[in-house]
Amino acid sequence: MAKSLRIIPEKCTGCMQCELACSWVQTGMFQPSRSLIRVNVFDEQASYAPYTCFQCDEAWCMTACPVNAISVNESTGAKVVGDSNCVGCGLCTIACPFGTVFYNPDTQKAFKCDLCDGNPACVVACPTGAIEYTESESADWLGGWAEKVNSSYVASIEGGETA
Amino acid sequence: MTNGGWKGTILRINLTNGQISKEPLNMDWAKAFVGGRGLAAKYLYEEMDPKADALSPENKMIFATGPMTGTNASTSSRYMVVTKGALTNAITTSNSGGHWGPELKFAGYDMLIVEGQAPTPSYISICNDDVRICSAEHIWGKTVWETDDIVREESGQHDTVVTCIGPAGENLVRFAAIVNDRHRAAGRSGVGAVMGSKNLKAIAVRGTGGVPVANPEKFMSSMWAMKNKLTEHPVTGEGLAAYGTAVLVNIINESGAMPTNNHQASQMDGADNISGETLTDTRLVANKACFSCTIACGRVSQLPGEAQDKFTVTTRPHNWKIAVEGPEYENAWAMGADCGINDLDALIKANALCNELGMDPISFGATLAAAMELYESGAVSEEITGMQLNFGNSDALIAMTEQAAYREGFGDELAEGSKRMTAKFNKPEFFMGVRGQEFPAYDARAIQGMGLGYATSNRGACHLKSYTVAPEILGIPEKMDPGVTEGKAEITKIFQDATCTVDASGLCLFLTFGVGLEEMQPQIEAVTGIPYTVSELLEVGERVWNIERMWNQRAGFSGKDDTLPKRLLEEPIPDGPTKGEVNRLGEMLPEYYKLRGWDSEGEPTKEKLASLGLG
Question: Which residues on chain B are in Cβ contact (under 8 Å) with A44?
Answer without folding.
Answer: 322-323
